[in-house]
Amino acid sequence: MLDNPQHDFRTTELDPDLLSTPFKVQTNWHVITGAPSCGKTTLIDQLADKGFRTVPEIAHMYIEREMALGRKINEILKNRVDLQGILIDMQLGIEHELQANEVTFLDRALPDCLAFNRYVGLNPNDLLTECFYHRYASVFILDPLPFHENGVRDDDSAVVSYLDEWLARDYSALGYLVVRVPVLVPQERLEFVLERLSEQGLI
Length: 203
Fold this sequence. Notes:
By secondary structure, the protein is α/β, with parallel strands linked by helices. It has one domain: Rossmann fold, CATH 3.40.50. The chain has eight helices and seven strands; from the N terminus they run E-E-H-E-H-H-H-E-H-E-E-H-H-E-H. Helix 4 runs antiparallel to helix 5. It is globular and about 45 Å long.
């Protein structure tokens, strides 16, 4: 599981001292996240169709770009530690280019990288202070789809459970009220998210 076996950060909690870091910029950004194959991309695409500004998942953007340049997927994923560093830099760059006051839906945000750092064998606390630059308006975590629906193999179920748990724990530790989106048909998931935001006057 780990690409950096010298250190095992799989159960590393976020540093309580660093968690007292104040946020710098309040945004109107809404995070759509969850474990792999939970239906995020479908929901983000639906939100885009509704006219909202959206930001696709950075990992997908990077992989598609590299494959277009002729690289093979196994080559791109060979060193997950190096890849994680690239994705963090890309996520930081894109979020710093966004307008804080514009309603925007993000397919994953910087705090997602905390869980993925653990997964590849990196210390999540090395990134923690960066997560306090922007404060998101809301965070939605999509419940994992049943494995027979999302194509995830049985031997990947532990990874899905691991990331699902740590995404929720990390965003909660950062002070966000995480909203769980249950397994519903795509249109009902869209309505669920939009209704919650409308009730709070966020859209």
